[in-house]
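Form 7-S
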Amino acid sequence: MNPSANAMPYPSLAEVERLARQAGEVVMAIYATDFAVQGKADASPVTLADQQAEAVILAGLHALTPDVSIVAEEAMAAGQAPQLAPGGRFWLVDPLDGTREFVARNGEFTVNIALIEQGRPVLGVVLAPAVGGTGGCLYAGIVGQGAWLEDASGRRPIACRQAPPEGLTVLASRSHGDAAALEAFLPRYLAGRPVAHFGTAGSSLKLCLLAAGQADLYPRLGRTMEWDIAAGHAVLAAAGGSVCRADDGHPLVYGKPGFENPHFVAAGLWSRPAFGAAGP
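Output:
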């Protein structure tokens, strides 16, 4: 999915990574304080870190791509919804995915920036600033060009793995319990394929773990918004994986009315041989 000769080139991945790191510094500075937690209209938590990190990202993206619209979580919560051209480019920003993880101080929260083109994520950066030591873990990817992980060990390419013959590693959300739905869904979806391990992780890290070849499947059978997963989806797609609707197996698309996702399944290189009526 590289830009064609007539298409607008992608923005600099390095510049988007820089913005994510700047936002991460803001997040970590507030993480070190006795911060307050407020509730939004949908009862989800929000902190000063969400708001200040988003301000940093929005200013940077406006400077980098002044003609590209931005859909950002906190701006949307404040009623600031941009008008999007059908099939056009826009940014999706979640300045602090995993606010519950942030509040719980378990480190599994992320800064997320994704570029959407024709309904598909084509560029994404996910920074986990509290994971992996100084500087955190940064996942980045451009579909058609590759995906990378940068941490204390340096920068290296990542890719989805072939599913191990002994069974899949399946991930679930740490803070959003859907265990009963997952237990009912998996046998139908896997059609006899064994599961060797179950794991949990917070925020968009689950998509990045698939991209890095550390897991194989992440079914999400609860409510998510597009900004929650777009950057992780871009990294996963750049690493060879996919995110599809759980009800019909069609690729997940972005720019939907209300920006709410259906139930979905994110996967590495394993895919269900023949999709059937495997809805949650």
